[in-house]
Amino acid sequence: MIVCEKCFCDTEIISVIRNKEDIGNCPMCKSKNVHIYDTDKYEDLSIMFDELISIYTPITQLLNSYPKSDTRLLKSELIKNWNIFNRKSEADVYNIITEICKEKYEYNAELFDQPIGIQELYEQDYLAKHSLLTTNSWEDFVDALKTKNRFHTHYINLELLERFCSYIRKPYKAGECFYRCRISTEEGIPMDKMGAPPIEYTTDGRANAKGIRCLYLGDSAETTIYETRAGAYDFVTVGKFKLKKDIIVVDLKRINQISPFIEELDCLEYAINKEHLNKINNEMGRIMRRSDSALDYIPTQYITDFVKSITHNEVAEYAGIEYKSVMHENGYNLAIFNPELFECIDTKIYKIDMIDYRKHVM
Ligand SMILES: [Zn+2]
Fold it and tell me: Is residue 56 part of a domain?
């Protein structure tokens, strides 16, 4: 069977296909003049998928205590839980996967044709060692931080969190620009006042506790204007900020999209943590309301402070975190730990003409 780079969205798989340097047309997705991969000719993808699929157990071999409601077919699991295929049809995914793993299919068809589950998801001993939240749920962790022990919780495995962060590093080069918006007057705000507030004016935010300075930036002027939630007829000043030196941030937007095929990654460990990683991602992107309390920021402040504490050769490894904008689709934000890493090089004043309120009856 011929598949192509466009049939997949996993970066590791795309790079394997590109390295083959076979160009042609793809009968599966109909892309023309693309890098193709012949499953009869090569074995690379079989080896990669065999490892991923081997974390699953067919329903007939799962322990009786395993909840049957938590099993599903491999083709649905691959689409729902893993960001590997560009094909959304279960039939396409089934056909591709049984061709790539044809040897495995010959002696273990049950894995592909019967509901499957991950036995370790329900093994307390395994979870205690390999789950980000040991045997707790995300809700237990949040509750413990808010009401039991804020700074020294044992509900999270920080060594594991550090490892997951290392898979989502994102470098930025000196000279790259980001934006920051503040509500202002018609006269605007001078450039030297556009940065992070001084310590005495800091308030609790998604990535900083009151008293800790943090520079919040957005990928575009538009994202930052949305994030500011200015009202109609308000004036806002948008500052353009230039990065002074090369940095690395943790791209939390991708925390649940790490490729399972990264060489040093343990697929099983990653799979059992997917649910927790999704929760971290959702928490970073959660919409805050005026009525929410400062306590609601504590889980993300905890994770941010931990990222800030990671060092390599006694030097801080990460300069900030990146997360999706909840106010502006496809936009993203950066929280930079040391505000001095950026300088404001330009400002523009805007007047908000209209706000498009969308609502629904509860
Ligand atoms: Zn294709």
Answer: yes
